[in-house]
Amino acid sequence: MFPGHNGSYPHDFEIAREHMVARDLRPRGINDPRVIRAMSKVPRHLFVDEALWDQAYGDFPLPIGYGQTISQPYIVALMAQELELSGRQRVLEIGTGSGYQAAILAELARSVFSVERVSALLSRARKVLDKLGYSNVHLKLDDGTWGWKDHAPFDVITVAAASPQIPQPLLDQLNDPGILLIPVGDEYSQSLVKVTKEGGRINQKDMGGVRFVKLVGDHGWKA
Ligand code: SAH
After folding, report:
1. In a domain, 88, yes or no
2. Number of domains observed in the structure of the chain
3. What residue's CA is closest to ligand 1, atom 14?
4. 153 touches 170 (CB < 8 A)
5. pLDDT tens, position by position, 81-92
């Protein structure tokens, strides 16, 4: 095996991922075997700049440019677990960012539709996802607060940026039964809200405090 440009071996990253799972995920309640498998498999370092590869398996967000970040592994795993994916669902993700979470979701669902508003991030994500062979991920450049009507309804919707309220189009495009996860709050204090739709009824549960970048759009924060 040959080292990469920065002198590290692919095998090193595999070990770093195993450490991440054992140190940051399992002790904090990530125990869905499918989620553990996905987190152990997807090469998070490939979704960040090469200068950050040695930090890619730490449990913190990293900058991906344009004022945005790749979410910390624990939050990605927690959201994946709360979405209760069995491999059959059609998923809508708002905020593709680096594409990392889309890859995790692609491991756990039938298909992933992901919307991003920053063109440069979307094309970078597309490149990495293509290279890794995720043909079940579909990307679109748009204001994701409108959802993705052409492909609705979705069994699961996950939002990777915080909104002052739950965008109505997302509620409308959620299947019955369906699960929607979204951080709701202002810039400084947000709760991860889990919305479930079942038998025409909508329930909301507060999953605890989180900190995400802003969801900027017509049904989010005004640009
Ligand atoms: N899931 C991503 C996290 C990206 S951070 C990852 O794994 O890397 C959140 C992303 O949401 C940013 O890239 C930001 O540009 C994007 N975003 C913010 N508002 C948006 C909107 N209205 N529609 C689509 N994407 C949006």
Report:
1. yes
2. 1
3. 95
4. no
5. 999 999 999 999
